[in-house]
From TrEMBL:
Segments traversing the membrane: 5-25
Pfam families xrefs: SCO1-SenC
InterPro entries xref list: SCO1/SenC, Thioredoxin-like_sf, Thioredoxin_domain
Domain of life per record: Bacteria
Name the record gives this protein: SCO family protein
Positions of disulphide bridges: 65-69
Thioredoxin domain location: 26-200
GO molecular function annotation: metal ion binding
Keywords (A to Z) from UniProt: Copper, Disulfide bond, Membrane, Metal-binding, Transmembrane, Transmembrane helix
PANTHER family, per database record: ELECTRON TRANSPORT PROTIN SCO1/SENC FAMILY MEMBER (PTHR12151), LINALOOL DEHYDRATASE_ISOMERASE DOMAIN-CONTAINING PROTEIN (PTHR12151:SF25)
Protein family per UniProt: Belongs to the SCO1/2 family.
């Protein structure tokens, strides 16, 4: 009986260890496809493989979100100010906010969303959406980006998306570095320190 107990305990331990290893390996190999192109808040093209000089903090949102998305954007805006004080924002790191609702979140709508947070339109914090003329293609592209980072989302039919609650830090080659909680659990100090550690 004791031997069976030990075997069962060992089997459970091995199973847990294998599961942890799987997720660690999966995250370590995660990378945003470099051939994807979306458009930013100014209607300009942004290709993920075009810039290999900066880290990127990636946030997924939709502008009709009632809580966690705007809370995250607000906290990222405060983080941006801290990174500006350190002289690294725009030089060593940029922010990418990607809408999961590109049909409603046009460049004009994204500009309004930015204005609501006092975020100026510049090349260091881009808000990305799909081209209305190619919306189905770009919806697939956004889904591909999200899937590459294990970010999941679904519209149950009422326009209020159910989605994963993580933001992502990726390196100069769009490869996964770390993920952080969204909303109230987004720890600006933790994210700041992770960014600065990767830069220095």
């Amino acid at each position: 009986m004791k031997k069976i107990y030990l075997i069962c305990t060992l089997a459970v331990f091995v199973g847990i260890a294998a599961g942890i290893a799987f997720f660690l390996i999966r995250d370590a190999n995660t990378k945003i496809p470099s051939n994807i192109t979306l458009i930013n808040q100014n209607g300009e093209s942004y290709k993920f493989g075009a810039d290999d000089s900066k880290l990127k903090l990636v946030e997924f949102i939709y502008t009709h979100c009632p809580d966690i998305c705007p809370t995250t954007t607000q906290k990222m805006n405060v983080l941006k100010q801290e990174l500006e004080k350190s002289g690294v924002f725009g030089k060593n790191i940029e922010f990418l906010t990607i809408t999961i609702d590109p049909y409603r979140d046009t460049p004009k709508v994204l500009k309004g969303y930015m204005k609501g947070f006092g975020i100026s339109s510049n090349q260091s914090w881009l808000f990305l959406t799909g081209d209305r003329q190619n919306i189905k293609r770009d919806q697939k592209s956004i889904r591909e980006i999200a899937t590459s980072l294990q970010f999941q989302y679904k519209d149950p039919g009422n326009g209020q998306f159910i989605h994963t609650t993580n933001t992502y830090l990726v390196d100069q080659n769009n490869k996964f570095i770390a993920k952080f909680p969204m909303g109230e659990k987004f720890d600006k100090k933790e994210v700041y320190e992770k960014i600065m550690n990767k830069i220095n």
